[in-house]
DNA sequence: CTGAAAGCGCTTACAG
DNA sequence: CTGAAAGCGCTTACAG
């Protein structure tokens, strides 16, 4: 079980040269004779030698390791398809550029610590805040630290932020529904956050632009990703004296809840009631009718976050701390009826 | 942007003591005067000092870092709810025990390397093979290495394996369906693998025990997690001269495909055709009728994998290389009709 | 072309 | 109770 690994010293002994020479030969320095280099490389291969990155980092001041903050709250974190997909694509891009990924935690080896402490401990080259409570002091401490930081879903002045364009997404979705002839549109939105806020504002604006007014009772606050919560709220909405013809849910999971309630009431989708979601999770496209929704480009978000972060790490002076808005895509599905 | 971090030397200078003394004070050695200790701890706090783990590891021969192999193939890896949930729970448990998690990759800093090389590079304390091609030479090299290894979904002699009990799961599911009065049961299974094999065998056995024979044409090979694939296969099955009364799909996603096809053909579920899945993904329980399926306990799998691996790391001599089978749970849902 | 030496930041016997 | 010294495995000016 012991992990006995060849060191540079072992190679130097077996080759009868100094460790300096071994190091240089292995790192491709030019001032080593071809014969020596070959001998060393051969010996290293045979010994299964591989340099230890942590030690290397000690001299090089670079760990090629990125810290990823991914707090695993109830419905968030890795258990959320949205975030899991973003991480997958971030990981792929980072690997391609030669960086490893380590999760940022609150403790290691029995020591409690802040996120920032953990970063120092591991000496990350940069930090990706993928999923966190953005008002937490510890998170802010990280954002305001000396580390190169990229966040998603939330913009900071002190970091690069990659955002799915929520204003534009909600605009496209709402306009599409209006274009299908709907004027009585209800919105079960998620709990308070900047994302929720932007979508709500956008929804309002598009209604106004189209000269549409909807009653207060068409707005309900649900819980992101909770089908249960939206089932109840949908029941209330559909039992109104003047019910909506279309319900937009906070996300695709919530939309499934709306569909369940509708079907339970004997309503057909989209004939009797139209439903729309947000996110574009895979399952919602495996159903029939396919859900009308806004697809967030998780591959692009993760890819872009990694690209930006590594640029910031490698060329801090030529990488500005921008907020980057990524395009979303309207998925027309079949769950919104054309009333015209 | 420069990460100037206080070192132990800085503290020693500001306190007027040696680095040895600082190190000992910070690590709770007893032979340091109370006054000195307090002064040092205070100074360290003020300087925002935090020891660097990589350097520490150099002496301590322990990194408190676990390598996780998670190859991101098309439908696998982090984009698969099953694996993502297992990773989430593994991560939580590992964090609680004080271990970090780093993904094992194929390259870092432009160097190609094997998985084992990467482990040596990062000097992991142990390895969790969560999602990989188990026949790949590189994976076998890892399993056969000196590293403590835990795998899931596949048993090895040289490692601890945590498995969801597929034989038992398929047994429960099949028996339940038979108990509901079904005798014409089709099975759209996944592509070849030990998991697929065990489920198929179990399915056969239960049929035999119940004196049931089903025609060859009731077996179809689909693709795990592909609704598209199972849509086509279901169409074929339902168009047979003597169609099944129940179709078991390889997993819940595939089951959704079966449902789509059925509905498209004007069949109601479960009145006209019964459907069952496997996995217990969240979405399948948000639908109506709820899908009859076998729920794999992803939380338990990840938790147990982490627990076993850390035990193996910390107490190699008192941790045996077992294969651990975890219970599954039959979710009765409403997608299988009671024919009695 | 090669190697001795210093140093990265830390820990830990050992001497005082 | 405190500190000088060696060492973990590697890199890199510098001297030869």
Summarize model confidence as the mean pLDDT of chain A.
90
Look at the structure and name the CATH superfamily of the domain at 166-296 in chain A: Response regulator
What is the overall silhouette of chain A? elongated
Give the CA-CA distance, first to last residue of chain A: 72 Å
Largest interface: A-B, 66 and 66 residues
Give the number of helices of chain A: 12
CATH architecture tag of the domain at 166-296 in chain A: 3-Layer(aba) Sandwich
Structural class of chain A: alpha/beta
Largest sheet strand order of chain A: 2-1-5-6-7-13
Rounded radius of gyration of chain A (Å): 27 Å
Fraction of residues in helix of chain A: 40-55%
Overall CATH class of the domain at 166-296 in chain A: Alpha Beta
| Percent strand of chain A | 15-25%
Order of helices and strands of chain A: HHHHEHEEEHEHEEHEHEHEHEEHEE
Commentary on this structure:
By secondary structure, the first copy, chain A, is of the alpha/beta class. Among the domains of chain A are: 1-49, 434 Repressor (Amino-terminal Domain) (Orthogonal Bundle); 166-296, Rossmann fold. Chain A contains 12 helices and 14 strands. In chain A, the strands form 4 sheets. In chain A, strands 2-1-5-6-7-13 form a 6-stranded parallel sheet, sandwiched between helices. In chain A, strands 9-8-10-11 form a 4-stranded parallel sheet, sandwiched between helices. A two-stranded antiparallel sheet of chain A has the order 3-4. In chain A, helix 10 crosses helix 11 (252-264). The longest helix of chain A is centred in the last third of the chain and has 17 residues, at 298-314. The radius of gyration of chain A is 27 Å and the shape is elongated. The N and C termini of chain A lie far apart (72 Å). At the A-B interface, helix 4, helix 5, strand 2, strand 3 and helix 6 of A face helix 4, helix 5, strand 2, strand 3 and helix 6 of B. Chain A binds a DNA duplex (16 and 16 nucleotides) through helix 2 and helix 4.
């Amino acid at each position: 079980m012991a992990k006995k690994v060849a060191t540079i010293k072992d190679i130097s002994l077996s080759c009868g040269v100094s460790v300096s020479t071994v190091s240089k030969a292995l790192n491709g320095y030019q001032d080593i004779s071809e014969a020596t280099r070959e001998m060393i490389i051969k010996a290293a291969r045979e010994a299964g030698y591989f340099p230890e990155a942590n030690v290397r980092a000690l001299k090089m001041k670079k760990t090629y390791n990125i810290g990823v903050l991914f707090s695993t709250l109830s419905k968030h974190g890795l258990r959320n398809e949205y975030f899991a997909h973003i991480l997958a694509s971030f990981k792929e891009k980072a690997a391609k550029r030669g960086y490893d990924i380590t999760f940022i935690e609150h403790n290691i080896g029995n020591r409690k610590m802040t996120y920032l402490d953990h970063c120092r401990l591991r000496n990350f080259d940069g930090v990706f805040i993928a999923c966190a409570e953005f008002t937490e002091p510890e998170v802010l401490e990280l954002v305001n630290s000396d580390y190169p930081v990229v966040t998603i879903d939330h913009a900071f002045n002190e970091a690069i932020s990659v955002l799915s364009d929520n204003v534009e997404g909600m605009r496209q979705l709402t306009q599409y529904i209006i274009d299908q002839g709907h004027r009585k549109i209800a919105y079960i939105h998620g709990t308070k956050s900047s994302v929720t806020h932007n979508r709500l504002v956008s929804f309002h604006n598009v209604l106004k632009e189209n000269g549409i007014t909807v009653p207060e009772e068409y707005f309900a606050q649900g819980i992101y990703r909770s089908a249960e919560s939206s089932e109840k709220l949908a029941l209330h909405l559909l039992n109104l004296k003047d019910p909506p013809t279309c319900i937009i849910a906070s996300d695709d999971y919530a939309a499934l809840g709306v569909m369940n309630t509708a079907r339970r009431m004997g309503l057909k989708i989209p004939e009797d009631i139209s439903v729309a979601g947000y996110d574009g999770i895979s399952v919602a496209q495996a159903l029939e009718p396919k859900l009308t929704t806004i697809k967030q480009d998780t591959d692009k978000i993760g890819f872009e976050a990694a690209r930006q972060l590594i640029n910031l790490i490698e060329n801090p002076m030529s990488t500005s701390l921008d907020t980057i808005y990524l395009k979303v895509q309207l998925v027309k599905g079949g769950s919104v009826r054309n009333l015209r």
